[in-house]
Amino acid sequence: MNHFIILTMSLLLWALAFLGLRKIKMNFFKFMIGSLGLFTIAMIFLSGFLEMSLSLAISNSLSIIERFTHYFQVFSENSIITLDTKSGIVSMSINYECSGVIEMLVFTSLAIFFPFGSIFRKAFSIIMGNIYIYISNIIRIMSIIFITKTFGAEAYYMAHTLIARVIFFVFMLLLYYFVFTFTQMKYQNVGDIK
Questions:
Q1: How many CB atoms lie within 10 A of CB 83?
Q2: Domain range spanning residue 5?
Q3: Contact (Cβ atoms closer than 8 angstroms) between residue 131 and residue 48
Q4: What's the longest Cα–Cα distance across the chain?
Q5: Same domain, 16 and 102
Q6: Which of 2, 143, 145, 171 could form a disulfide with 136 if both were Cys (CB 3.0 to 4.6 A apart)?
């Protein structure tokens, strides 16, 4: 019951702040309050459910890849991946950070309140963007598996904390460029730039 009251109060305060900023036409602050408010509320009240769902979906996707490659082993019900390397067995858990829930919530929150494009374009961007983030996350996890399997258990830390993050970061830069930067350049009117 307390969670419901806190959620209701949070939504009410957020909506009032957003509508007030919209009324006085402070577009930048409306974008910021809208995006940050939605992200914060979703992280507090939906992240547990989303994390479990995404971890299970990623585990099931990796199970399909495992059936074809036999390169690693997936325990979908526990969201655990194990692989046998030349220097020992490595187990990876698909947890909160590996599920991609934060990246998806940030992207969705920004896309909803981004001031350019039609509702159809926003809906399309949100759906395709989240699919892109999901696939990018699978590629990130597969790069960790490949590097660890190839170079041994000692390479896991480097693969997880550096190489895979850089790969994922590049994918996110491309997504944000095409959804936000390119769209803003397309819709803004600044002289006769051709």
A1: 21
A2: 1-45
A3: no
A4: 64
A5: no
A6: 171
pLDDT of residue 66: 93
> Is residue 192 in some structural domain?
no
Task: Name the pTM for this structure.
Answer: 0.88
d(CA 180, CA 158): 31
Report how many domains make up the chain: 2
Note the pLDDT tens digit of each residue in 92-143.
988 878 888 999 999 999 999 888 778 898 999 999 999 999 999 999 999 9
Distances (CA, A) of 183 to 121, 128, 145, 173: 10, 15, 35, 14
Measure the CA–CA gap between 189 and 85, rounded to whole angstroms: 56
> What is the rounded distance in angstroms from the CA atom of residue 184 to the CA atom of residue 169?
21
Q: Based on the domain organization, do 149 and 121 belong to the same domain?
A: yes
All residue ranges of the chain with pLDDT < 50 are 194
Q: Within this chain, do residues 105 and 172 fall inside the same structural domain, yes or no?
A: yes
Q: Please give the structure tokens belonging to residue 70.
A: 């036999």
Would you tell me how many other CB atoms lie within 10 Å of the CB of residue 103? Answer: 20
